[in-house]
């Protein structure tokens, strides 16, 4: 199972749609309010808040991979909770911090890439 944080945002929602149509791993979408979120059929919408890592253990049950959009909350706490839950892989959506000048910690991540 893949858990996508930021699942209702621009990047996360597109990723959830793509992963759900690929027919690979089951997809779980993390949202603060599952009743208000609209996800494709078959996507497991779960309640969780990245600013409160203690709200995540239930969402992480059975999760093998986590897609983490940074800056939505307590990134270190989310990673520690994922580690404790046995998550094997984490994909960090780093492009949001590399190319958005107003993003927290915005700075070049690769040689020659400058924030706009």
Description:
It contains three helices and five strands, in the order E-H-E-E-E-H-E-H. The chain has 116 residues and is α/β, with parallel strands linked by helices. The chain has one domain (2-99): Rossmann fold (3-Layer(aba) Sandwich), CATH 3.40.50.720. Helix 1 links the parallel strand 1 (2-4) and strand 2. The chain is globular and about 30 Å long. It starts with a strand and ends in a 17-residue tail after the last helix. Mean pLDDT is 83; it is low at 106-116.
Q: Name the CATH class.
A: Alpha Beta
Determine Rg (CA atoms, Å). 14 Å
Give me the count of strands.
5
Major sheet attributes:
5 strands, parallel
Order of helices and strands: EHEEEHEH
CATH H-tier superfamily:
NAD(P)-binding Rossmann-like Domain
Question: Hey, roughly how much beta strand do the residues contain?
Answer: 15-25%
Question: What's the structural domain tally?
Answer: 1
Q: Regarding quaternary structure, how should these chains be classified? A: single chain
Outline = globular
Secondary-structure class: alpha/beta
- The N- and C-terminal alpha carbons lie at a distance of 35 Å
Mean pLDDT: 83
Q: Count of helices?
A: 3
Q: Point out poorly predicted stretches.
A: 106-116
| CATH architecture grouping | 3-Layer(aba) Sandwich
Strand order of the largest sheet: 3-2-1-4-5
């Amino acid at each position: 199972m893949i858990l996508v944080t930021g699942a209702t945002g621009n990047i996360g929602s597109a990723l959830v749609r793509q992963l759900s149509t690929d027919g690979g791993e089951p997809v779980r979408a993390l949202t603060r309010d599952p009743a208000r979120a609209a996800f494709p059929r078959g996507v497991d919408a779960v309640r969780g808040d990245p600013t409160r890592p203690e709200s995540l253990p239930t969402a992480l049950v059975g999760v093998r991979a986590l897609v983490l959009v940074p800056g939505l909350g307590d990134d270190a706490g989310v990673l520690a909770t994922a580690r404790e839950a046995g998550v094997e892989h984490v994909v960090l959506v780093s492009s949001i911090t590399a190319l958005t000048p107003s993003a927290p910690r915005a700075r070049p991540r690769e040689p020659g890439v400058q924030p706009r």
